[in-house]
Amino acid sequence: MRRVKFISLCCLSGLLCFGSIPFSGVAFGEVKTFNVTASYDFSGPYADIMKNSSNAQKIIFAWWNQEVGKGLGVQLDLKGYDFRYDATITASKWPGVLSGDKPIAHLGIGGPDVAALMKRLPNDKVPLFLATGTYGFIWGPGFWVFNARPTYWHEAAGFYKYMYDKQFKRKIRIALINTQGIPAYEEFVTASKKYAAEAADAVVEVVGVEWVPLRPVDLTSQIARLVKEKPDFIDVYANTPQVIATLRALQTLNKQIPIRMSSHNGIEVSAKALGNLKDFEGCYDSYSLRPALDHSVPAYEIFSKYKDQIDKEADYNGAAVQAMMNATMVFRAVERVIKSKGTEAVNGENLYNSMFEVNTTSAQLLGLSNDQYFTRERPFPAKNLACMGTTVKNGKQVLVSKEWMPIPEVPKW
């Protein structure tokens, strides 16, 4: 198994401690160490962003160990493994990780973690934390999975509701680009159609769907068919190549229809792939995390003050925000367990049970998320659902709104 080596997490002092709790009965000088494992992908589809993502987690662990854990007599050791964003590899390597590290929590990066681990985690007593959108196939009770974000359609619906209220005042016509054969992608179409047809206060209607290759070369004919339906937005949820192909097709057709994207294929990522932000003028993305371009939050301050200890070249970008988000969820769970039961009680089962019927505020989450409130009925927050978004205006990426945009009720599909 490829083990990712991490540097020592000894850190500077003096940074304001956000969300810390009082010292809890540990003898002076005594430190208890617990392991938190993480899935990485240094040799698969997300290898290009994984260095920065893993660096961001090292940064936030360094901060917590120095500014919070030190006062509690606790250190959390981050141990990462390259699972290549592959469910088969994750499933085959997990027993060794479990027995070797005895983690109190695992930090996932996406669907392969959920698919490989969701059925065995209740027996393993290790909760899984993710900062990706939730997949519909896990929308139900009993899983030891905690998603910082609701489903990807929730995040789209929140944006469209905001645009409905602020601009359209009528149902918004959306067309969809997607790929068949990948359930996590296909369900976005299923969810959007069910919402449009069944939600009492639906703000969209789906006027067309084009199923295209995962990495299309040209989408001019498909986009031309969608244009005839006069959509207000073309929603491209799957990946960056489809975003770029859609944009190029619109340019070829001389049509200006805004594209809405998610986080994993959003403006920041797609503009970097294309090499030109200005081509995304008037386009949008939306997701239930604070966009990286917003530097007003505590997470950015922590990242800036600690990054030189880990990697001076580390960027505060979307990948960094996601990596810091699920780590912060673990920190708050650890703090709750120590506060109520003491350091001896820090284990996976107690972390899992500490997550329910507790409102964790945006401030406690370092501004990266809206307030979070979990119940045992589903793996994403049951209250306070909201998203944020960005757009390109006059050649610059800016926030759609400085405030969280509430997400409407979405029927389960």
How would you describe the overall organization of this protein?
With about 425 residues, the chain is an alpha/beta fold. The chain has 2 domains: about 5-150 and about 295-380, Rossmann fold (3-Layer(aba) Sandwich); about 150-285 and about 385-405, Response regulator (Rossmann fold), CATH 3.40.50. The chain contains 12 helices and 16 strands. Helix 6 (about 185-200) links the parallel strand 7 and strand 8. The two termini are about 40 Å apart. About 50% of the residues are buried. Mean pLDDT is about 90; it is low at about 1-25.
List the helices and strands and how they pair.
Elements: E1 3-4, E2 32-40, H1 47-72, E3 74-82, H2 87-101, E4 105-107, H3 111-117, H4 121-124, E5 128-130, E6 145-147, H5 152-168, E7 172-178, H6 183-198, E8 204-211, H7 220-227, E9 233-236, H8 240-252, E10 259-261, H9 267-274, E11 284-287, H10 298-310, H11 318-341, H12 348-353, E12 359-360, E13 372-373, E14 386-393, E15 396-399, E16 405-406
Parallel strand pairs: 2-3, 2-4, 4-5, 5-6, 7-8, 7-9, 9-10, 10-11
Antiparallel strand pairs: 1-3, 11-14, 12-13, 14-15, 14-16
